[in-house]
Design goal:
This protein is of the alpha+beta class. It has a single domain (9-267), classed as Phosphatase 2c, domain 1, CATH 3.60.40.10. It has helices at 50-62, 71-95, 142-148, 154-157, 196-199, 204-211, 219-229; strands at residues 9-18, 28-33, 38-45, 102-111, 114-120, 124-129, 132-135, 179-184, 190-194, 236-245, 261-267. Helix 1 packs antiparallel against helix 2 (71-95). It is globular, with a radius of gyration of 18 Å.
Amino acid sequence: MTAPNGEAFRVHGVGATHQGMVRKHNEDNLLLRPEAGLWMVADGVGGAQAGDWASAQIVDALQDMPVPPTAPEVLASAVARLEAANLRMVSRAAERGGGMTASTVVLLLVHGVHYTCLWAGDSRCYLLRDGVMTQITHDHSEVQELVDAGALSPEEAERYPRANVITRALGVAPRVQLDRVAGRLQPGDRFLLCTDGLSRMVSDAEIAALLTESDIASLPSSLIAAALSAGGHDNVTVMVVTCEAVAGDTITPAAPGAPWVTGAGDVR
């Protein structure tokens, strides 16, 4: 990909998922489609089979999405496919006689020199830029609403007993509510998409320190290892996407990652 000023850079990512130390099933899912400029992490809700199935619906909806020629069309296509996955989850829950068949989602789209992040739930996207890490998503959760209302301090929120209760996700209503943030890429940008199996177990300060490691291929294993060392109370899934300046048009393939890495690649 080439910026208007003629500077060439590549965007590539690596991702990994782990069952954790407590859960019997992994209900998380992830998708890397570098050729489409698309990276996604999802956290299924509803217990074994239902949660697995729900997060898999998002993968199924996005993995064969054609790549439209313009950024607005890319966004519209992604939203339409997420809405279709949402309706499948709602229908499945009705067929099962009720209960929760849902999934959080956080999705990073890159088109040209711009990015868009879509999300529902408490799976997060962080951006590390110029050495400073910022959470660019805002959790859809009960505890976050209490913090926003001033009823809890951030320190109290860390000990809140219902921290896992989400207020928005795919599958909870016939019409999905997605939030969106967009911006312009800069060479050196590094995005982290993750489920709460990382963000609830590892502090932002520790995540930021790990995210500055120079070898992107090792980051998924490093981040997951930190979550497991902290107890690994939940499934944990991470995706790291980085924007690097390169000389000319030569694209160097991403280095292979840890054994559980699902995929890696580049988008021009």
